[in-house]
């Protein structure tokens, strides 16, 4: 299953590398969102400081929706899904591979956005251990939930609009917990943030397990 | 000997519409069969169903001795399906596609390389994104992936479409070689001259059911006026045998 996951992740990341959609379009879009929020809130620096964690994670969710849509758009092409189903890949391996590819793209986006909030918003990343300890499970959870719900939309013509409607409500707990944990890290009170990081870990594990178990059925039915 | 394909009154529904309305078809091991009929007759659906990719609503479908309705995944690893689009990732190069499907299907890299070379998927063609290739070139890439699988049962949907003369001859040689090696081949085709020359037994479908069959290839090119076929079938395409509407 691990080998299957790596095969699928390598394929998805190679697809991304060949097209440069993420690097050339999604990442600039994410930075642009940060800049626009900065313009909108800059007159009141206090509001911008308070909103920085939330703005960071909202932007990450936008990137996640785009990355998930992209990951499944390639499988929706005529005949490709049939070809994938005819391989010997374990469904759980396909799910984990797609989630891993989305997660890698999110990590890249989070690094760029992290630099962005430091430079543009003046955030102080002093509590870096909590920041990393929050970002890793949050990223895993977002990628897992996105990949699980993304497969539901594979065969639908309304895929582009249905994926955000399915994924964003499910990711609301991640937005809440990651924002609270980042607030604690940036405020210099990391002890307040670790419980939220623990909640994010539970969310990630739940969706990884559920996805690995259900993906085969969903792929057949989609 | 048990047939490689045995469909009895198989019904399949796709998107709420009946795609197959009681198909009866039997294909013996090592046989070469061509499914013929007008667009929408159900030829592609029969192929996909035999590959375990379409849900059987009712009836009995045994492929390579496996009940497709109960264990579709057990069938998939033993068949090779060539769909109209080839099932390739357009944004990957031909070589990327072959590499991925080789790993995903646990194929011998040497067999993949040999198949790619056989169909001319080398050099610049191998390094070109599939989306930029011509229809015939895509077909060659897909055929290389299919041949490398060495399936027990070959299911090909319009395999000659888009190929140049050399490619068509190459494909015919490969199919003849597969049958000689004991594989079973089922093609869906409108190119009756080509399937006739291959020695295919023609099975006619219309309206999601088998409406005629012939054990020889001569029916495809016969000058004898065929009987009227239901569902607006182009009855000049081939001629049902006297045995009725069971595909055997």
What does this structure look like?
The complex is a heterodimer of chains A (222) and B (248). Chain A has 222 residues and is mainly α. Chain A has one domain (2-221). In chain A, 84% of the residues lie in helices and 0% in strands. Chain A is built from 9 helices and no strands. Chain A is globular, with a radius of gyration of 18 Å. Chain B is of the alpha/beta class and 248 residues long. Chain B folds into 2 domains: 1-78 and 151-248, 3-Layer(aba) Sandwich (Rossmann fold); 87-149. Chain B has helices at residues 43-50, 72-76, 94-104, 109-118, 123-126, 135-149, 165-180, 192-198; strands spanning 5-14, 17-27, 32-36, 58-63, 66-67, 79-82, 153-157, 184-188, 201-206, 209-214. Chain B is globular.
- The CATH architecture of the largest domain in chain B is 3-Layer(aba) Sandwich
Please report which band the strand proportion of chain A falls in: under 5%, 5-15%, 15-25%, 25-35%, 35-45% or over 45%.
Answer: under 5%
How much of the residues of chain B is beta strand, in percent? 15-25%
Q: Roughly what percent helix of chain A?
A: over 70%
Radius of gyration of chain B: 18 Å
Mean pLDDT of chain A: 88
Give the helices and strands of chain A as they follow along the chain.
HHHHHHHHH
Query: Which shape of chain B, going by the Cα principal axes?
Result: globular
Q: Please report the number of helical segments of chain A.
A: 9
Contiguous helical run count of chain B: 8
Low-confidence spans of chain B: 215-245
Number of strands of chain B: 10
Give the total of domains of chain B: 2
């Amino acid at each position: 299953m691990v080998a299957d996951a790596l095969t699928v992740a390598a394929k998805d990341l190679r697809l991304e590398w060949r097209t440069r959609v993420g690097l050339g379009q999604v990442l600039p879009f994410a930075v642009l969102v940060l800049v626009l929020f900065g313009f909108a809130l800059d007159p009141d620096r206090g509001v911008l400081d308070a909103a920085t964690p939330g703005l960071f994670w909202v932007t990450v969710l936008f990137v996640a929706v785009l990355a998930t849509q992209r990951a499944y758009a390639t499988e929706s092409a005529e005949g490709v899904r049939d070809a994938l189903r005819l391989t010997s890949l374990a469904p759980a391996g396909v799910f984990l591979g797609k989630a891993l590819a989305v997660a890698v793209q999110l990590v890249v986006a989070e690094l760029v956005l992290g630099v962005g909030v430091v430079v543009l918003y003046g955030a102080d990343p002093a509590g870096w251990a909590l920041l990393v300890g929050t970002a890793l499970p949050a990223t895993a959870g977002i990628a897992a939930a996105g990949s699980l719900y993304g497969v539901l939309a594979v065969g639908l013509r309304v895929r582009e609009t249905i994926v955000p409607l399915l994924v964003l409500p499910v990711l609301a707990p991640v937005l809440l917990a990651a924002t609270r944990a980042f607030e604690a890290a940036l405020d210099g009170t990391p002890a307040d943030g670790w419980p939220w990081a623990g909640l994010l870990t539970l969310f990630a594990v739940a969706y990884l397990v559920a996805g690995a178990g259900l993906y085969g059925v969903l792929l057949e039915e989609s | 000997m048990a047939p490689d394909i045995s469909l009895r009154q198989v019904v399949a529904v796709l998107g709420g519409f009946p795609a197959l309305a009681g198909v009866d078809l039997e294909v013996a091991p090592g046989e070469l069969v061509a499914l013929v009929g007008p667009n929408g007759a159900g030829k592609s659906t029969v192929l996909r169903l035999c590959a375990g990719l379409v849900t059987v609503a009712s009836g009995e479908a045994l492929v390579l001795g496996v009940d497709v309705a109960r264990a579709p995944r057990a069938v998939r690893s033993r068949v090779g399906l060539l769909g109209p689009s080839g099932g390739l990732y357009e944004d990957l190069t031909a070589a990327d596609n072959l590499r991925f499907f080789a790993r995903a299907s646990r194929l011998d890299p040497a067999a993949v390389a040999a198949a790619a070379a056989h169909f001319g998927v080398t050099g610049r063609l191998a390094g070109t994104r599939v989306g930029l290739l011509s229809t015939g070139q895509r077909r060659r890439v897909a055929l290389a992936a299919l041949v490398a699988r060495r399936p027990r049962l070959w299911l090909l949907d319009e395999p000659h479409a888009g190929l140049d003369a050399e490619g068509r001859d190459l494909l015919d040689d490969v199919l003849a070689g597969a049958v000689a090696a004991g594989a079973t081949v089922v093609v869906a085709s409108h190119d009756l001259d080509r399937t006739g020359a291959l020695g295919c037994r023609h099975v006619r479908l219309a309206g999601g059911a088998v409406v005629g069959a012939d054990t020889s290839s001569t029916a495809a090119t016969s000058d004898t006026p065929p009987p009227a076929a239901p569902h607006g079938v182009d009855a000049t395409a081939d001629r049902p045998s006297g045995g009725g509407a069971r595909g055997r």
